[in-house]
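So, who can interpret the following?
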Amino acid sequence: MKVQLGQQSIVIRAPRKAVFSLISSFGVDSQTSDTPAIANNQERAKLLERDGNRLLMEFNSTDGRKMYRTVEEVMLYPDERITFRHLEGPLYHSQEEFLFDEVDSELNTGTLMTHNGTIECRMHWLPGVGWAVARFYVKRHYERLVLRHMNNLKVQAESSDTH
């Protein structure tokens, strides 16, 4: 059974095109090199395969002292949306998306970046336990990881010379 992640949004003071370009830039320069660290020297994204706007990516992310490796199909819908479908790793049936909307108000001008998705932990030997683990443990940690990545992207985008 899937567990719905809480929707998380942040406003980034940068144009939507620049924000989309930054978040979707993993692995563009070389099919064999790793991208710069996502949040620190241990986290990385590596392009495994590219077919137009469909990317096959390997991500290494940390939560505390634990390192998690995932392989994900990433679909780019410039400049509006990026979807992720987990193929390998601890959440191999999970799906996520980032949406990018332009905002222009008295308080904020820039891009509203919103994340949502579902996670699923399958434990074939104990049906039902996977849902409980996803709901009461993984969800909290995963949402914290996503928010950390969103805030890092915000800092990068707002300090960039591209806007």
Q: What stands out?
A: The domain at 3-159 is CATH 3.30.530.20 (Alpha-D-Glucose-1,6-Bisphosphate; Chain A, domain 4). The two ends are 42 Å apart (CA to CA).
